[in-house]
């Protein structure tokens, strides 16, 4: 089935409605990143051997990876979009849902292209363990229930570089993409790293970028106070010693401000939201296309 611009625009409208009703944007950003992030740029065998943004995360073989705890809920939320627009691949739906979530939450417009092909069988899922450990470090524990703990890299920054360099991304992209934690929460029953709830996630008021008050399922810990708005508050909050102690700071977040290679970018993004958005949109586009095969080859823009 060949996808058309009309199908993609229809899918986009449906996604926008889900985002408006459920305020689940961060969940979709995590889903899309966990579909593309296992990509291994060193694998040169024919597609889809290197893994990437290819819809493979819809298969339970991959959803059951420890780092993907909870993401079956995001797959389910997007199933009606696939039913209504069957010509649009899962890979496109997941990446579109993520980009729209960021745009509608006040983030940058990402120069997306579509036409990704889907993997067709669970045999094509990547191996477990390619996504980063949130708590890698000397006393680290793995950031996804039941996942594999990295034993080779004893520092958070070494671990992050190993994982993101494998995808073909650089230090600037690592820092920019870490800024996606301006958005969303970590949950006790998913990664195990969030609190039951905090004063920012207990069901009390959360504003959206359009000025509306959002309703959401209470629970978890957020990195920032306004966790449904995509801005540079991750970079202002993480280094702030006086930040509310109920806000989350993972080992992987802390190293962004301590490592000599990462720090200049983190400080730049703290000081200028425009600079953050410029770097973020480039890094996000690259992330959304890791290991993707497009038909037509040049992709379809909307
Ligand atoms: C740098 C390495 C990273 C680590 C160690 C990491 C770790 C985590 C962890 C442990 C959670 C909590 C999951 C849960 O309990 O539900 C989480 C959530 C999240 N992550 Fe990351 N992450 C990383 C990079 C990224 C990247 C590159 C993106 C996207 C560009 C991203 C986007 C998100 C979002 C939006 C959430 C919130 C999900 C929600 O609210 O449901 N993360 N991350």
From TrEMBL:
Q: Does the keyword Heme apply?
A: yes
| Gene Ontology terms describing biological process | cellular response to oxidative stress; hydrogen peroxide catabolic process; response to reactive oxygen species
Alphabetized, the UniProt keywords read: Heme, Iron, Metal-binding, Oxidoreductase, Peroxidase
Region annotation (Disordered) maps to 118-155
- Keyword Oxidoreductase among UniProt keywords: yes
Domain Plant heme peroxidase family profile intervals:
52-302
Domain of life per record? Eukaryota
Q: Which GO terms describe its molecular function?
A: heme binding; metal ion binding; peroxidase activity
Q: Which family does it belong to?
A: Belongs to the peroxidase family.
Q: What is this protein called?
A: Ascorbate peroxidase 6, chloroplastic/mitochondrial
């Amino acid at each position: 089935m060949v996808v058309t611009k009309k199908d993609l625009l229809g899918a986009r409208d449906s996604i926008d409605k889900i985002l408006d009703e459920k305020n689940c944007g961060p969940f979709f950003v995590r889903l899309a990143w966990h579909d593309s992030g296992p990509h291994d740029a060193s694998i040169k065998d024919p597609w889809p051997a290197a893994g990437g943004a290819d819809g493979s995360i819809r298969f339970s073989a991959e959803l059951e990876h420890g780092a993907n705890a909870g993401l079956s809920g995001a797959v389910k939320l997007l199933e009606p979009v696939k039913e209504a627009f069957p010509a649009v691949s899962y890979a496109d739906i997941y990446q579109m849902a993520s980009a729209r979530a960021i745009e509608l939450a006040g983030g940058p417009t990402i120069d997306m292209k579509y036409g990704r092909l889907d993997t067709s069988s669970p045999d094509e899922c990547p191996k477990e363990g390619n996504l980063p450990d949130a708590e890698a470090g000397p006393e680290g524990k793995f950031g996804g229930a039941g996942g594999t703990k990295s034993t080779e890299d004893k520092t958070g920054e070494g671990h992050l570089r190993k994982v993101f360099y494998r995808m073909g991304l650089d230090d600037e992209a690592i820092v920019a993409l870490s800024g996606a934690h301006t958005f969303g929460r970590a949950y006790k029953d998913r990664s195990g790293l969030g609190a039951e709830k905090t004063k920012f996630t207990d069901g009390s008021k959360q504003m959206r970028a359009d000025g509306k008050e959002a309703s959401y399922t209470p629970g978890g810990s957020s990195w920032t106070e306004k966790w449904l708005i995509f801005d540079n508050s991750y970079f202002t909050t993480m280094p702030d010693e006086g930040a509310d102690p109920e806000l989350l700071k993972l080992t992987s977040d802390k190293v962004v401000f301590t490592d000599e290679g990462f720090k200049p970018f983190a400080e730049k993004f703290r000081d200028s939201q425009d600079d953050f958005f410029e770097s973020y949109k480039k890094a996000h586009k690259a992330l959304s296309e890791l290991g993707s095969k497009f038909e037509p080859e040049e992709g379809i823009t909307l």
